[in-house]
Design a protein that fits this description.
single chain; 338 residues; alpha/beta; Rossmann fold; L-2-Hydroxyisocaproate Dehydrogenase, Chain A, domain 2; 2 domains; 46% helix; globular; binds (2S)-2-hydroxybutanedioic acid
């Protein structure tokens, strides 16, 4: 009897619409031929639930697509080239992840990339507005603190903005925090649980070390050093690459983790939580990174900001005006573009 019951529930699970959907995703990578785009596409390709992995870039990607298509996973790899094929690339996508744009050079701040990369946000948001307004749209392209407000403004102007479906990927800040804190504690970084709030540039990146699990018990000076390293980790890579760009491999790792979380949540998995930079009412900044529970339709729940210590509250007070200014700049960019 019990066996029959189990068989029946397995049958229901394997034929439920969620299960069918879980094997039927289209994911589009914009900027798929670039330094982040290639490893990101490779890692996303490993997800067995993908029906179509659509690669978009400004240059031809036949070679990359053929290469990826030989991996023994179900589904197909398609390519789309240039602005004229952007709408076709995103059409029908469950998730669109954007890695296109210029990287930083040594000595540059992320903000300085807005002139080069703002147009990417505007063009992708325009294409999504027309061809796939219901998709989950996630940006890696910098400066995240401005790019997400730009995309939001374009989606708003087109009457399709849904704050629960637009993301700036800040997963790499969490990945780095886990690694650096885990190493400092002599623990497996995978077992470190840490929330990173704020934005994705310098002091706007705020890892909440006081909430870390297991607790980090270092001296104040060590805590300060760790926070600074997490905030400047992107610059550490830019310097090490000495003119050859910024983080690509660790960013692809983080981006693929975020896409995987989105897909698991779309598929009906409960309790999927990621930090991301989104339109938010948690603070006075209109866009803010915090912990989010993901669901079938994007953000299911904005988790409360955890209880912070005095140092963290001071750091939050300092970063909020920066995020507000960044949001205004991103919105201005969009208004000029539209
Ligand atoms: C990073 O954090 O590595 C990226 O935002 C790239 C950069 O410019 O630092």
């Amino acid at each position: 009897m019990m066996l029959l019951g189990r068989l029946k529930s397995q049958l229901v699970a394997s034929t439920s619409p969620w299960r069918l959907l879980a094997r039927n995703y289209k994911v589009t990578v914009v900027g798929a031929g670039g330094g982040i785009g290639q490893p990101l596409s490779l890692l996303i390709r490993q997800n067995a639930g993908i029906r179509e992995l659509a690669l978009h870039d400004i240059n031809e990607m036949k070679g990359i697509a053929t290469d990826l298509s030989h991996i023994s996973k179900p589904g197909r790899v398609t390519t789309f080239v240039g602005e004229s094929q952007l709408e076709a690339a995103v059409s029908g996508a469950n998730v669109v992840v954007v890695a296109a744009g210029m990287p930083r050079l040594p000595g540059m701040e992320r903000d300085q990339l807005m002139a080069a990369n703002g147009g990417v946000a505007a063009k992708v948001a325009s294409a999504v507005s027309v061809a796939c307004p219901g998709t989950l749209l996630a940006f890696i392209t910098n400066p995240i603190n401005m790019i997400v407000p730009t995309a939001a403004e374009v989606l708003k102007a087109n009457g399709v903005f849904n704050p629960r479906r637009l993301f700036g990927i800040t997963t790499l800040d969490v990945v780095r925090a886990k690694k650096f804190i885990g190493t400092a504690m002599g623990k497996d970084p995978g077992n470190v649980d840490i929330t990173v709030i704020g934005g994705h540039a310098g002091i706007t990146i705020l890892p909440l070390l006081s909430t870390c699990k297991p607790p980090y018990l270092g001296e104040a000076k060590e805590i300060e050093k760790l926070i600074h390293r997490i905030q400047e980790a992107g610059t550490e890579v830019v310097k090490a690459k000495a003119g050859n760009g910024s983080a690509t491999l660790s960013m692809a790792y983080a981006g693929a983790q975020f896409v995987d979380s989105l897909l698991r949540a779309i598929g009906g998995q409960e309790g999927v939580v990621e930090c991301a930079f989104v339109a938010s009412e948690l603070t006075e900044a209109p866009f803010f990174a915090s912990s989010l529970e993901l669901g079938r339709y994007g953000i299911k729940r904005y988790l409360e900001i955890p209880q912070m210590n005095e140092l963290e509250m001071e750091a939050l007070a300092k970063l909020l005006p920066i995020l507000r200014k960044n949001a205004e700049e991103g919105i201005d960019f969009a208004r000029k573009y539209l």
